[in-house]
Amino acid sequence: MNTESVVEFLGNVPLLQRLPSSSLKRIAEVVVFKRYERGDYVVRKNQDVDGVYFLLEGQAQVLRSAGEENSQQFLLKRFDFFGPGIFGDVYSADVVAVSELTCLLLMSDHRALLETKSVSDSDKERSLVEHILYLEPLDLNVFRGFTPPNAPTYGKVYGGQLVGQALAAASKTVENMKIVHNLHSYFLLVGEINIPIIFEVIRLRDGNNFATRRVDARQKGKTIFILFASFQRKQQGFIYQESIMPHTPAPEMLLPREEMLERRITDPLLPRDYRNKVATEINASFPIDIRFCEPNYSTEQTKSPPRLKYWFRAKGKLSDDDQALHRCVVAYASDLIFASISLNPHRREGMSVAALSLDHSMWFHRPLRADDWLLFVIVSPIASESRGFATGKMFNRKGELVVSLTQEAVLREAVTIKPSFGAKL
Fold first, then answer.
1. What is the number of alpha carbons within 13 Å of residue 380 lying toward its C-beta?
2. Which of 191, 273, 316, 416 is the most buried (most CB within 10 A)?
3. At what angle do helices 3-10 and 21-30 cross, to 10 degrees?
4. Active-site hit among 161, 335, 340, 371
5. What is the pLDDT of residues 335-371, one digit of tens each?
6. Which of 161, 165, 230, 407 is catalytic?
């Protein structure tokens, strides 16, 4: 099999479809052919990782724990792949050939060839999240926001982008000594990523110590999102804290989200279709560094408890110590994984579900830095009448409660949801 044929094969492997052709050629030059007879073990559970396997011909079976059904999702065929598990540099399961089998093995020494380069790694005056939050002033109370090409999108404007940009617009109309202390927002229509968003700020109140703003976000003349925000001049007062930060590993001891996703992609104990889907969806330019506290084998098709804990911070050093900027960045990050955890107890194999945010509220209790680690603790106490409700708390590394949050989302069993410019419900 010549190099050109190997490159053609590799181009059909879901894990590799995000790579440029030059990377595929380099991989083709270093992979090792491995052949097995029926019944041979390809790898053994807890065996040290020697690399990532790509199935060229034949089939292999992932052997799961006793009592677990070996469904078709764990029968590996041509173009499938597997590698190290999510908990370290060992294989998470036995993989055995169920026919004559030929694999291509990319040795661990060459795993760097699987990496994609992030757009956000290039030199910029602003971090990516600041670039996303940038607004162009059109009038005293009117601003224009954009969805940059390298911003995270999900077929529509990401909800956190609307919250962060609207809060940035409101903050620009308030004197510097007053800082946002709470916001309440409502998602009305799906936002289109290819056209600008106009943010109009209505000055509802300007008092000595407090100011209130309403922001209407519009596209094509329609209001797609509304935010109410209250700002307060710093004042001395009573202080106490009842909430206690849960014990978790330090963020430096946890894997970055991107590395964890890379491990999930190659872990044979996760369903094949899930791994293929994740392989095509990894966004190398996501502007927030996320570290999950409790890595597990849950997917969107397996039940799990309605709770989650993760550390997060903005990637790169933010260019300003201004609290307005840091709170806008936290608002941006807060919608990524929130009320969707209400779906966790209802997930099952073959079920397609979605959570669409309805409203989102935040209370800022203390000064914070969005480029330093914050622990986000999320619990969904109830889902009822097609709606899920979640509460969140954000702690700094000292254990101080800095933000409280709530969100409600509509929960749906899909039909595929196609982005369209229209009502969310």
1. 26
2. 191
3. 120
4. 335
5. 988 888 888 888 777 677 777 899 999 999 999 999 9
6. 407
Query: Does the annotation mark 335 as catalytic?
Result: yes
Give the β-pairing of 197-206 and 210-219.
Answer: antiparallel
| Sign of the CA dihedral with 343 first, then 255, 164, and 285 last | negative
List Cα–Cα distances, 413 to 154, 305, 351, 356, 419, in angstroms. 18, 18, 7, 11, 16
Q: Give the global pTM.
A: 0.77
Q: Give the DSSP H/E element, type plus range, for residue 298.
A: none
Question: Lowest-pLDDT range, 100-114, 251-265, 359-373, 404-418?
Answer: 404-418
C-alpha to C-alpha distance for 94 and 47, rounded to whole angstroms: 9
Q: How far is Cα 168 from Cα 199, in angstroms, rounded to an integer?
A: 10
Query: Distance between alpha carbon 188 and the CA centroid of its chain, in Å?
Result: 22
267, 357, 371, 380: the active-site residue: 357
Instruction: Name the β-bridge partners of 309.
Output: 377
The pLDDT tens digits of the residues spanning 272-296 come to: 887 887 777 665 568 999 999 987 7
Active site residue 357: yes
Please state, for a pLDDT cut of 70, what percent of the chain lies above it: 90
Q: Identify each DSSP E strand in 58-167 by its residue range.
A: 60-63, 75-76, 81-82, 94-97, 101-107, 135-139, 142-145
In terms of DSSP bridges, do strands 374-384 and 307-314 run parallel, antiparallel, or are they unpaired?
antiparallel
- The pLDDT of residue 124: 44
pLDDT tens for each residue of 52-102: 999 999 999 999 875 565 567 799 999 999 998 777 778 888 999 999 999
